[in-house]
Structure formats: structure tokens, C-alpha cells
Amino acid sequence: MTSGATAVSGQREPELGGQIVVVIGGSAGIGLETARRARAEGADVILTGRNPDRLKQAARDVGAERTAAFDVNDAAALQRFFADLPAPIDHVMVTGGGPHYGLLLETDAAQVRQAISDHAVRYLNVARNAADKMRPGGTLLFMGGTLGRRVGHGLGIVAAANAALRPFTAALALELAPVRVNLIAAGFVDTPLSASLLGDRLEERREELRATLPIGRVVGPADVAALAVHIMSNTALTGATYDIDGGQQFVT
Q1: What band does 98 get if pLDDT is binned at 50, 70 and 90?
Q2: Residue of 107 and 83 predicted with greater confidence
Q3: CA gyration radius for the chain?
């Protein structure tokens, strides 16, 4: 009797039970791991991505309710996607592309505009289309970075682009309340995108981080996914930026 009662009392309710989570860019990396974590916490998930084949495989892996293959930068396709979604939905996470590195004096005007505005424009378009579909207390969750906050050789554009996302997120949280808006700022995360950017330097970078980060290991997609689901489930969080880099910004 005692052991049975203890087992029942030790159970907990899933954090996202009965909720719907949309992950834009959910076919790989951080997006896919967030979908997996959300499913484990009882949510139904909807995945989008540009590659239909990879998207289908991701949907099978996590048991997604539905998928849609399109480029989030295509404003018309994004509008159609949200228009076709049955309301209401609870949370929308948008993963970001890679950072734009380069020397400022070697960057032309068009590249500057793209580097600084890319994420903000993408996130604003998602917000405009998602807001009317979302339940009060749900969250729009965006991705930014911590590494670019340091002004260094070749990091000027990255730092400027990331600096804009903090006040952007806070201002949007005020405009969309009671829908919540939050930003995850990540350092190096060991994803397929990181592998494609670093190529044969990937293992060298991993070893460097294992040796220098206070946590003694490399941050992975599952770490970011755990933070993302916490932000979704904690309805006191809005307008804020949450760093996840294993202490990278303090030791590099």
C-alpha cells in the first residue's frame, strides 16, 4: 500500500499537456529537439521546414500532428500557412539561420541591411500572422545569439544584429500581450548547422569548448529545447532574453 501510494504521488502532469506547439524550422537541430521535448511533455506539434523529405522524416521521428514545407522568408507562404491552421494554437517557436560574419568595411549596404534586419523581419512577419491564432498566455519564442555581443574583428555585424533583438522582443511583448514573446540567446550549439559552418574544424572547436567552458561540455540542441519548453510552460515569462551558452561569453 505504501509503495503504491508513493508511486502515484510521485507522478507529475506533463507541462504542455493538451497544448499545440508550432515549430518553424523544426526539421533538424534545435527546432527538432524542441518538438521532441514538447511531445514528451504532452503537446501536439506542427513542424515546418524548407526540405519536404527531411520534414517528413522529422515528423515521423517525433509524431508530429502535421507538417508544412515552405520558406519562412516567403511572406505569402507564411501567411497561407497560418491562415490554414485551425485555431487556437498555444506556442510558436522560430529557429534562426546562421549568423552573418564579415569585416564591416568589406560589407556592402545591401549585406548590412540583410544582416541587421533578417531575423527581426522574419520574426515580425511570424508575429503578425500568428497572433490572432494564439491563446492568451501562449508564447512566441525567437532565437538569437550571445557570441556576437562582443565587438571583435569580423563580429561587428553579428553584434549589431543580436543587439537589436532584445528591445525588439520586449517591445513586441507589450504589443501582443497577453500573448507572451521571449528570446533565447544561444552561444555555440552542436547542431548540423554548426557542422556545416565549421567543416573540418568542428572537432577542434568542440575540444576547445570542453576545455574552456565552465560546464565542461558542449551545449547541444537538447539543452536549448529544455529551456524552450520551460519558457512555454512558465506563464510569468515575457519580454525577456534567456542566455544559454555554458558560460562561453565570460571565458572567451
Answers
A1: low
A2: 83
A3: 19
For strands 66-69 and 20-24, give the pairing. Answer: unpaired
Residue 122 and residue 170 in contact, taking contact as beta carbons nearer than 8 Å: no
CB distance 96 to 194 below 8 Å: no
Cis peptide before 178 (omega within 30 of 0): yes
pTM, entire model: 0.90
Buried b (16+ CB within 10 A) or exposed e, 176-209: beebbbbbbbbbbbbbebbeeeeeeeeeebbeeb
- Cα separation, 25 vs 251, in Å, equals 30
For 180-214, what is each residue's pLDDT tens digit?
A: 999 999 999 998 888 887 899 999 999 999 999 99
Region for residue 89 given its phi and psi (left: phi exceeds 0; alpha: psi -120 to 50; beta: otherwise): beta
Q: Is 104 helix (H, G, I), strand (E, B) or coil?
A: helix
Q: Is the dihedral of CA 105, 145, 179, 27 positive or negative?
A: positive
Cβ partners under 8 Å of residue 143, min gap 6: 30, 93, 94, 95, 96, 119, 183, 184, 186
Domains of the chain as residue ranges with CATH: 15-251 (3.40.50.720)
- In terms of DSSP H, where are the helices of the chain? 2-10, 29-40, 52-62, 75-84, 109-130, 156-176, 192-198, 202-212, 221-233, 248-251
* Residue 148 CB neighbours (<10 A): 23
Helix, coil or strand: residue 228:
helix
Q: Are 130 and 82 in contact (CB under 8 A)?
A: yes
